[in-house]
Every structure is written in structure tokens, then in C-alpha cells.
User: Fold these one by one.
Assistant:
Number 1:
Amino acid sequence: MEETNILSVSGLSKSYQSGDDTISVLNNISFSLTKGESAALVGPSGSGKTTLLSLCAGLERPNAGSVVVCGRRLDILAEDALARFRSACVGFVFQTFQLVPTLTALENVMLPLELRGENNAANRAGELLERVGLAKRRTHYPSQLSGGEQQRIAIARAHINHPAVLFADEPTGNLDSGNARLIEELLFELQQSFQTALLIATHNEHLAQRAGRLFRIDNGLLNEQRVNN
Ligand SMILES: Nc1ncnc2c1ncn2[C@@H]1O[C@H](COP(=O)(O)OP(=O)(O)OP(=O)(O)O)[C@@H](O)[C@H]1O
Ligand SMILES: [Mg+2]
């Protein structure tokens, strides 16, 4: 049932040009996620996990195939329309947190809404800081926060636009095992609470097993390893 798909990828291929060589990274990949569904994406380093997430989020464009998010085909949207669409429907969490160092925790969480000129950003950001357990840190700058705390801020920021789909690229990669577990709990708690579709690229076996579905990417091909546990 196509209409229940939040993310639908079909025949996706991506290659990079390196001098005279063409490096084929993804080869004819198809899959979809429905509302509130979670999936992990695993595979060796360099297999194309970040590339696939970037294509799905409209941060990069494929050489072939289509990416449909909430009924919109991203691969053919013009750059400005794509940016607007991303800011309205898509969330992204990075391995390296990517907070703005000159903004406080609260301001970082507010930023996506502020950029859209929306009112009420501070209230919603405050609520999300509470959800991630960092309400007391609202006036702290990223340099005053631990890595785990910075990632919790980044997760709050990624939810401020109520994304239909959230992409997380190795969200626990820079954290110790205790903080990794906290981030894992938070990602799935918010995914269930907000019914966000969630796609996580990870080398963290525990995190991968927690997701509802498991995809493995190898040699440019995507295989589903486990369906809906
Ligand atoms: N902009 C680019 N130009 C050229 N090659 C690229 C570019 N981006 C990625 N690649 C190549 O594409 C392949 C896949 O990279 P990607 O970052 O998607 O892998 P990954 O699975 O995320 O790896 P890791 O687990 O280490 O994060 C690699 O061979 C990489 O060198
Ligand atoms: Mg990567």
C-alpha cells in the first residue's frame, strides 16, 4: 500500500567520479519504510551507509532511481524546494553532533524553527529539552556539555520540526557504551512517542538489533536481514 509509505526508494544507484575512475557505491537499491517503523542499516565501512542516508534525506542526488518522502519525489525537486521540504519533513542526527558552538543548547534546538520564521520555537525547544533530560542545561554552550549530552541536544533539535522520517548516521559512534545505550533508548522512545519513521546507520550491534527491521548493505546491494521483530 504505497500511501502508507513515509519513505520509498526505488532502483537507487549512486557512483562517484574519481579522476578517470567511476566508483559505484549503490546499485539498484529499493526499500520502503512506513509511518513509525524503525530500521537499522549495517555494513562494512565504505559500503555506502552514509551515502544511502544522504540520498534518502535529499542531501545528495542519485545517478538513477527515485526517492519519495511523504509523497514527494526528492530526486527531482529543485534545490530551494528541496531545502524547504527537508526543513519541514526530515530530521538528521550525525555522528559528530554538529551543534552550532556559538549557540546555547536551547538556541541549537530552536534553530530549525527559527530559520523558518516560526513563532513559539522556544516553547517547543524547551519541551524537547525536557524530553531528552536536559532542561537544566538550556543556557549551556556545546563546549560545556559532554558528548552524550551534545547528542541528546542534537536529537531534540532533529525532532523540533516533527519530522515524518528521522535519519541517524552512526549516532553512537563517538560515545562510550553507557552513553551509547542512553542515546539508543532516547531514539526509540521518541520514535515510538512521535511515530516517526527511523533509519539508523550503525556499526553498533546492540543498536541495530533494537530496530524493527535490519538491512545490510554490501557490494552496493541492500539485503533485508530481519523483518519486524
Ligand atoms: N563525495 C564523494 N566523492 C567520492 N567518493 C565518495 C564520496 N562520498 C563517499 N564516497 C565513497 O563512497 C563509498 C561509500 O562511502 P560511505 O561514506 O557512504 O560509507 P559508509 O558505509 O558510511 O562507511 P562508514 O561505516 O565508514 O561510515 C566510499 O568508498 C567512499 O570513499
Ligand atoms: Mg558512514
Number 2:
Amino acid sequence: MENRPAQTDSESRRLQSAFSELLLAWYRASCRKLPWRGVEDPYAILVSEVMLQQTQVRTVIPYYERWMKRFPTLETLAEADEGEVLKAWEGLGYYRRARLLHAAAQMVTSEFGGRFPSDPETIASLPGVGPYTLAALASIAFGHAMPVVDGNVIRVLTRWFGIRGVPSRLPARREIAETARRLVPREAPGDFNQALMELGAMVCLPRRPCCLLCPVRRGCAAYAEGAQARFPEAAPPKAVIRQFEYAGLVIREGKVLLCRRGDGGRMERLWQFPSVLLPKESKKWSARWKSKYGALKETVPLTVLNYSVTNHRIRLELHQIEKFQRYKLPSAHWVPLAEAPKLAFTAAHRKLADRFLTGADRLHPAEPWKNDR
Ligand code: SF4
């Protein structure tokens, strides 16, 4: 299939202009009522856009509503402590977003006197604001004609224009960006961007696009050829990596041993039970544990949980540890059992915490071992 059916320039311009008009009319008549639609506060728009990155709308809605009650203004977010911010984000994943949002609020407060910047260059200097968030915020909150390109937009544009190639790679990436830039109107660019995303989310679906309900069916290259499933082209899948995680529940004197993840990696600064990650299932996981935290003895298996992070499939075993040598890790802390559930855990360890921390003070306490007092 060619990138577009052969058309004269004027026919192509006419179709593109009809595309924008029909799309906007459809959006204004039938878009979903979402809590951030029609909102003008750039802070609220930023919160919704950051939450919507890599997360589905229905998951975001309750988080957004709770967040806006807890941190209704930029100032309330800027003044909050990081633990509170991460706790409010808990379960939404990609926690770096929460930390950057917090840092952005602090920057607006400290450097711009609490007034949200409106020019694209300054917005782009805020922590965590990449090209997608910049275009969404600048177009929706401030009316700049900047095109938003996300997964939904890519699907609509590659189908409608018949753009070949994997969208994350050149030259397709450039062609998509150029097409989106050409389409975005000076009038109501925010509505147009939201309309394109809404079409991708509600009509031009990945597996079964509802072409008969599509307001821009006429002129769609993929529809004309019955080739919707071929767009956008998929990148070859990443190989699945299996991993085995062994975690320990160590209780002593009404406290539980927990670790805080470091900066820069996955799920940074979230809490979890102390654990080791191995590439293979192994009954000798305690040797790895010893090198990381100190020796242990007399463990009782409590549960097994399977979870995925990107292309990693992880089998997590939780063991109660009854004898241990002093832990060595600076990030490990004895946390009172009543306080521990209030911390922001990684998603998998949150499930363990919910199940095993309540009533854990009735468990057999761990004893120091090997002269460790
Ligand atoms: S006609 Fe079908 S494939 Fe084309 S944009 Fe509309 S929903 Fe997508």
C-alpha cells in the first residue's frame, strides 16, 4: 500500500481541512465527561497529563480526584513532603512522575512567584515536562498551536495517512510529527489535540476500530484499503526476562525491617521488604541474602506472588525470617508495625504488606543470631 492513495494537492488539502472540522465537531458533541475536561487551571491540567502518561483514563480518574482534594493548588503540592506525595501516587506506577510533578510545583513557587509560566520555552524548563506534556499543557491551557503526539494520535494518523514504518523509529517518527504539526489549527489547538486523542481512545481502537462510527472515515487511507490492522506497524517484541525475587518478613520488638529503594532506578524511593533478585530459581537464595544484608537462618515460606514490570516476569517468594544477623544495608530501617502500612510501597510489596503486616506482631519475632546484639 502506498503512503496515501493518489490525490491532487488541492484534494488533499480539502480532505485535511474537512478532517479537522469534522473531528472538532464530533469531539464537541460527544467527548467523554472527564474531571479534567473544561478545566482552565494549568496546574490541574499538568496533574492530569502527567497521570495520563502510560496510564489508562479509568485508572487515573480516582487518583486525579483524590489528588486534587489533597493538593488542590500548586502551593499545597509544593509545600507537601515527599513521603506524602508518593503515598498519594501509590499504585499508579512510574513514581518518578510524582517526584517530578512535586519538583515542578516547587520550581513554579520558588522561581516564578507561584505564577504558572505560559510561554512554551519556560514550561519546557519545568522538571518532568517532556515534548508530550509541553504540547498538551501549552495547547490546552494557553492556546499555543503545538501538536500532541501520543499512542492514540499515532494510531489515528498512521491509519488516516497510511504512514508506514515503526512509529518510534525514523523516518516514520519524523513523518508523524510533521503531519501532526501541519494539522493542528491556530484556533482551539487544545480542543483539536484532545479530539485527536479522544478519537484514538474511543473510535480508532487498536484491535477493532469502529470505522462505521468514525467522523473522519472519508479520506482514511487504511479504511479505504481495509488495512486498519496493519497500522501502526509494530516493533519486534522485547524478549521476556524471568526473574526470581526472595523477600524476608523480619519482625522484632513490634517493628518490621523495611528497605527504601534508591534514586534513579525503577520505583525509586518506594518501600519494600528486604529482598534479593536472582536470574534463576534457587534454594540457596540465602547466600545472596547474606552478601546483601547479613546471614539468616530458619525461614518459613509464607506466600508466592507473580508480577510483571515491562518485559520482566517476576516470581516473588516471601519468607518469614526467624534468625538473622545484623542487616548491613544503609537503606534498611526498623519501622513500627503501626506505621509501616502508611508508607508508599512498590505495587507487589504493597500486596504483601496488606496481607502480612496486619497482626504481624503476633508472629514469632526474629531473633538475633551469631552474637548479633
Ligand atoms: S476510519 Fe477507521 S481506521 Fe480510519 S481513522 Fe476512522 S476509525 Fe481509524
